[in-house]
Structure formats: structure tokens, C-alpha cells
Amino acid sequence: MNSTCPYCGVGCGVTVTSRAGAVQVSGDGEHPANAGRLCVKGAALADTLGETGRLRYPHVNGSRVSWETALDAVASGLQQVIDQHGSQAVAFYASGQLLTEDYYVANKLMKGFIGAGNIDTNSRLCMASAVVGYKRAFGADAVPCSYADLDHADLVILCGSNTAWAHPVLWQRLVQAKLQRPAMQVVVIDPRRTASCDIADVHLALRAGSDAALFNGLLHWLAQQGTDSSMLPHLADVPTALDAASGWSPAQVAAYCQLSEEQVTAFYRAFASQRNVLTLYCMGINQSTSGSDKCNAIINCHLLSGKIGRNGSGPFSLTGQPNAMGGREVGGLATQLAAHMDFSAENVARLQRFWGSDRVAQQPGLSAVALFDAVARGEVKAIWIMGTNPAVSLPEASRVRQALAHCPLVIVSDVAAQTDTSELAHICLPAAAWGEKNGTVTNSERRISRQRAFVPPVGEARPDWWILAQVAQRLGFHQAFAWHHPAEIFCEHAALSGFENHGSRAFDISGLASLSVAEWDRLQPVQWPVNASAPQGTARLFSDRRFFHPDGRARLIAVTPRLPLAACTTAYPLLLNTGRIRDQWHTMTRTGQVPRLMQHVSEPYVAMHPQDAADYQLQARDLVRVQSSQGWMIARAVLTDDQPVGTLFAPMHWNCQFAAQSSVGALVAAQVCPLSGQPESKQTAVQIARWHSHWQGTLFSRDNVTFPDGVWWSRIPHTHATRYQLAGSGPLSALLSALDLNDMACQRMEGTNELRLLAWHDGELMLALWLGPRVPELDLAFIDAAFASPPTRAADRHALLGGRAAERENAGRTVCSCFGTGEQTILCAVAAGDNSLAALGARLKCGTNCGSCIPELKQLIARFPAHA
Ligand SMILES: Nc1nc2c(c(=O)[nH]1)N[C@H]1C(S)=C(S)[C@@H](COP(=O)(O)OP(=O)(O)OC[C@H]3O[C@@H](n4cnc5c(=O)[nH]c(N)nc54)[C@H](O)[C@@H]3O)O[C@H]1N2
Ligand SMILES: Nc1nc2c(c(=O)[nH]1)N[C@H]1C(S)=C(S)[C@@H](COP(=O)(O)OP(=O)(O)OC[C@H]3O[C@@H](n4cnc5c(=O)[nH]c(N)nc54)[C@H](O)[C@@H]3O)O[C@H]1N2
Ligand code: SF4
Ligand SMILES: [Mo]
Description:
34 strands, alpha/beta, single chain, seven-stranded mixed beta sheet, six-stranded mixed β-barrel, binds molybdenum atom, globular, 19% strand, binds ligand MGD, binds iron/sulfur cluster, Phosphorylase Kinase, domain 1, Rossmann fold, Dimethylsulfoxide Reductase, domain 2
């Protein structure tokens, strides 16, 4: 059966097969988004199925209860708050990872029937600026482009997007396009060098947060060069935008962006001279206190030059989450109603008619950061969080935790048994996970695809739409929430999109409003709009140069570039950037359970330039305390000249389930773009210092371990055991007593400042521990395997205590996650003459599946200069 990958906004189709009871997931060769390709996360989907780490039953105040009890508790809890404090005192915080049907029900319940605007979503942290950018420019939140544009572009600009790691299958398509048409230029705009620079002709490592000036300068340049005059009748507000851009000469841009004037003019020349230009932009643009303006600065250039609405051209905002777009369509953001309607009196009345409700919210609700502030102030007294983990992902995450800890009613719907957010919940509801639920998602190119259920839910997990509808009924809204099947919800949503639309709203899938359940089930991927005039969907918008403002013209927006609010000071001299790594998804609740996805990068880290490391007396792998004015974290130092001097990068993923004190969200300030409400997650001023410890260690354990205060730990699931990396300064006895070695037979080797220990129970290895002033180098795969088949000979046990098999070569850190190929293995092969991608692929297979590791393979090959 076919379904859709639940991770990123590329929206790859997958084919699910079952062989001898084991589920296998492969790329769907027929799906237009990926044509059979998958990245490592998609390829590892089968490993996320099953009960590991899942929430299986409803819980109230920590005790398992029946669904009846849990749903009654949710409904009566919400009702009580509404009765006492009004509907504004309750809120939903939802997610671009819900299915469209789930999302539609959540929005309908809050805005249509509870009657408040307070439903916002994690898309606020992600897409909100892109939405404002499109709406201001086009009069609608409508992505003009398609992935197929990559096959026609002459110049592709990746701006604030590490596509190679965050949208890997799209990146593979770009790599292929460049192979086929080497003349196609690729420009990467990113302060740091990333894996996406691998195929870049040019990397513009501009000053963090300075993109608006670069594009303002481009607008000015385009105006001076004389642009596509046929475009002008379709544009409004051109003079004011050009006026705002007029001061930005290449010299000024170069000084502001810390680039050379040659770099700037070469980029401008390329943009102006190439016919088809595609700008892909993502979090390096959106996550900013001037994110909306940055989006418009980019869109302005495409509009003025007419590089929009045709093959291979356009401003293409990449969506992060699998269904960020679906959320935008149903009104998941507190600032819109539903089906692309805003809160105008006309639209409120329209929705009242459609939903048959006289209590539709009249005004926008609180957006994410403001919402959690209102929780902190006690104004919002009940919050239902579904499909997101705000205690990790929101800025000032420690404040979010405190706010939740004091909130009278916190309800969490999640698939994971334990998250940093669910630890603070009064009511936990088990949601059906990917593979167990049925519905639709919309990817970055407006393509609606089906996610299909193929396994029964674990325990008593239920689909999110069902949970929401049950609560709605208990709140007294029976008829409006009486669906029996998600297909019915989809059809209602599709009907609403066409309701009194007459071409006024871009989002129109009225052509799908009368699907039968069987037709919905068979629905093939299709790009909206899908209506009477475009029954097969629409690949490209604005080919006719008609936009959605009432006069049909697009708007240029006057942009005044602003640098990040986060500014370095003597106390906080370094600028911390945050983002994604290749093999992890967000707060790791699913990908963190998959051993092979934990091997590429296993621990929270902070990347810095070697010069900065030297200034702070840091060495590679040291533990570093990173501190901002908001909070602090501990992470391992990675030294790389990919990182500009004076700047750091830390992944956003780690949290209290995977490491002690390593959540970067605690450091980021809750400063937002005034237009979009999106936080500035990419820039934080920080100081760093070595985190001193007397000992470090590696522990493998069959069971999870809780460590005493003062011990820093990070947890890394392997196939047969869990590994912990440890560090601390306290007495080792406190650590050893936390390990509870009572009933175990222990083999020890003690030296000065050093301890090695194996603990056995009934012939099974229970624990293996190495402690000392530095982490010893261990053969991790060999140790993990000993938990499945313990060595019996004394000599082998002795070797195990040494941490490595007597005769085995250490494969080193995993580079290729698909085939588990280690760095050492690759380096040996390169040294032996396999010094090309093809030769490595032929010998070790690495890089031949999803291709995400190719940039790293190339770097390893480059370490050995080719023989003359
Ligand atoms: N592996 C993986 N893939 C994912 C996700 C994941 O968790 N893991 N999450 C998905 C989601 S929800 C999202 S939103 C996307 C995000 O996808 P991306 O936006 O591509 O990923 P990020 O790593 O957040 O940030 C992108 C780049 O912005 C750069 N940047 C920082 N500041 C600036 C700046 O001032 N200007 C410019 N031009 N660039 C800057 C960063 O250095 C970084 O390389 O990824 C999606 N895909
Ligand atoms: N510093 C910093 N912070 C960031 C970012 C950054 O770049 N830097 N990026 C921001 C961005 S772009 C994003 S999108 C956010 C993401 O941040 P979050 O949304 O908080 O991260 P996730 O881990 O994806 O959370 C999804 C939750 O939903 C659960 N879940 C999975 N499937 C289902 C389901 O079907 N139903 C339900 N009910 N639950 C489910 C998962 O177990 C998990 O707990 O982080 C933001 N925060
Ligand atoms: S590129 Fe995105 S949608 Fe495709 S397989 Fe990877 S994570 Fe899934
Ligand atoms: Mo995102």
C-alpha cells in the first residue's frame, strides 16, 4: 500500500509492504514528489513502528484510565474554565504534524464552537513569516512553485536553507538536475558552510541576519538595469519599494552583509541575466524578528523581474513539517479563520453560515509566544497541546516549562509516552501514530497526498480527529462533530474551501468535496487548487499574472533591513545559530528511538571555529557550557572552519529525555517578528566556557538509568543496550550507587583515576562502564553486541573489559546511516585506493542509497590528495 512519509515537507510517497510479518518501507516510484527516493529518516520508518516509547493508554494525573474517564475529564475541565473565566481562558496548541482532518477538527472546535481564536500551532515557529510574505505580496498564502521547477531553473538560490540535510530528497533532485545540466548555477546563502554547499557554485557567507539588505540591493540593481516591463501593469506599490531599496548600492550591501563587492555584483548579475531563477528559502529567513520583511525582500525581486509564474522561476518557501501547509489551509494559525479566510466580518458571517454556529470567533487569538506568556500570567488556564513539544521547541523553554507547571489544566495528545511537555501534563491522551492513522497532508508544493493506516494502533491509541470530536460532543456540540470517518471531514473541509469562493480565495479544493470514502481512500497526489476549472489540480500559480489582491495586482513591499535583535556584547560575545542535523527529527521522540539514526551525530554539540576554541582554551570533544541571558546548556565542542569566527551552531533536537541540560531552546530569547509573531531562533548572543569535570565515562546499560544531580549524561539508544556518555566531578560512589549493582557479579579493573566494570546477572551482561579523566576509545558495536550474545571465554570477557575485540578493526563514527558504514572503514578504503564516490559505493555501498552522506564522503576522499 502507498502512504506518505510523516517527516519533512518534501512529502515523499512511500510504499509499505509486509514480508514474513515484517513491515518494509520503500520509496513510492509513482509519487511525483520523490519518484521512489527516500532519505535516511524515511528509509528508517519501519524501525519506528511498534510499542517502543509509545503512549498506549489515556492517563489522568499519572494514573491509567479508560477513554470515557479521560474524555470526560478533558471536557469537564475545559467547560469549567470556560464557565468561570470565559472562552478566552482556554487554548489549543497544535502542530504541522497533524493530518489535515485532525487539524480541521481542532480549528473548528476552537474557533467555530468554543468561540475563541486561541488555537495556534508550532508552524508559528516555522512558517509564519512565509505566510505573511506571501499574503502581503500576492493577497493569498499561495506557494507559486513546484518541485519540477528545479528541472528548468538556470539559477537556484538556497537562502537560509540547508536543503541537503533538511529536505534531502529535494536536494537529491537538485543534484541530479545539476548533473544533467551542469550550466545551472547554484548559490547558497548561509552564514555557515553547510552540506548544501557541496554542489554550490557560489557560497555567500553573509553576516547573520543581513539577508534583507542583500535582496534590497538586488531590487535596486534590477530597477537600475531595467526590468521586465510587461510585469509592471501587474504590480502595485513599486515606487515605495524601490525608494526603500534605493540606498542599497553593491558597496553598501557588501559592507552591511560583510561580503565583498565583487561577490555582491556577481550575484546580482547572475540573478538579472538568468532567465529562470528559483529561490528556495527556509528557516534562515523565516526565523527572524524581521522574517516577514526578509520574505518580501526576496519576493519583491522575483516580482519586479517577472521571474515568477513560469517554469523554473519563483520565490519558493520550503515548508518544514509534513503538513505545515495543511495547517495553513484549515486555519491552524490563530491569526486566520479557516480555508484562507481572515477575521473580516464578512468571513466570520460566512463561516457561521457554513458551520451552523453563532459563536464563531470574531478576532484573532494569541500566537504561540504570546499564548505561553498568557499561560504564564494565568490568563489562559487550560491548554491542550497536540502533536508538538513546546517545552523543548519554544524560545525561553524554561519559562514555558514554568508556565505549564503552574497552569491549572494541561492536556497533551502525543504518540510518545514521555516527553518534556507531557511530563507537565495533567491529562495525557495516546494518539494514533504514523501507520495507524488515515488522512491527508499537503507538502511544500501544494500537493495533497494520503497517509494511510496499515497497522492497528498500539494499546488504546486513537486518531487525533476522533479524540477532538469526542470532546466536542461532550461539550454539547453533537451534530457538527458527528463524523464517522476522516473522509467525511476531508469533504467538509474541501466544501468549505469552495464555499462562496468565486475565485476570491486561492485555496480551493472544491473539486474534491464530493469524494466517496472509497474515492478518498484511492486519492492520488494532487496540487491545489483543484476545482471546476482545474479538476486535475494546478502545478503553477500566477502564470496569468493575476494575483489575489482585489485589483488582481501583486504588491511590492518597502523593506527597511534590520539586523537581529540579538546582538553580541562583551558579556555575550558570540552569536549562536541553531538548526537541524541530518538524521534527527525535532525533539527526537521518534528518530531518537532508532539506533541507526543516532550514530551519525550521537550527542548534543556546539560547533565553533578552531580560532574561537583556542581563544577559550577548548579542544574538540570538550564539554562546553553555553550561556545566554536566558539560560544555559552543555554540549560537546566540535571544531570546524565551516563556522565563521565569532559564531556557533547547536542542533535544536536535544532535550531532557536525551541529555542533561542540553536544550538549546532554554537559551533563545522570545523575541518575535512584529508582523508574523515568529521567534528569532537563529540568533542568540552567548558566552562559552569549558565545563570542567573530574571524570568522564561511557556506560552501556540494558535498562534506562537515572543519574544523581551533578552528573552530566547523554543517552544514545543502540540495538541491544542503551549507551550513556557521562561526566561529573562528584564522588564516583554516588554514581555507582545509582547503578544499583547489588545482585550482580562484577568484573572490575581499577587504576589511578580509572575504573572499568562489567556487571553480569544470570550470565547476561547488564552493565558495562568505563570511567576516567578522558572518554576512552571504545568499539561501540562490539560492546553493544555483547548484550545480545555475551562472551563466554575468559579471554573474550577480558577483551570486553578493554572495550574492543582483540582482532577487530574499529569502524569509527557512522557516516552512512543507510548501510552503517563508519568513518574509519571509509578512510581505510580511500587510503587503499577507492578514492571516488563510485569506488567507495562499489566496495562498501556507502552513499548508494539515499545519498545524504555524499557531502561527507567527498570530504573524507579529499583528505587524501590524489596521487600525481
Ligand atoms: N533532518 C531533519 N530535516 C528536517 C527537520 C528536522 O528536524 N530534521 N525539520 C523540518 C522542519 S519543521 C523545518 S522548518 C525544516 C528547516 O529546514 P532548514 O531551514 O533548511 O534548516 P535549519 O537547519 O533550521 O536552518 C537552515 C539554515 O539557515 C541558516 N541560517 C541561520 N541564520 C541565517 C541568516 O541570517 N541568513 C541565512 N541566509 N541563513 C541563515 C543556518 O545556518 C542553517 O544552515 O527542516 C525540515 N526537515
Ligand atoms: N532553537 C530552535 N528552536 C526551534 C527551531 C529551530 O530551528 N531552532 N525550529 C522550530 C521549528 S521550524 C519547528 S517546526 C518546531 C518543531 O518543534 P516541535 O513541534 O515541538 O517538535 P516535534 O518533536 O516534532 O514535536 C512533535 C510531537 O508530536 C508527537 N507526535 C508525532 N506524531 C503525532 C500524532 O500523529 N499525533 C499527536 N498528537 N502527536 C504526535 C511527537 O511524539 C512529538 O512529541 O521547533 C521550532 N523550534
Ligand atoms: S525527504 Fe522528507 S519526506 Fe522525504 S523521506 Fe526524507 S524526511 Fe521523508
Ligand atoms: Mo519547522
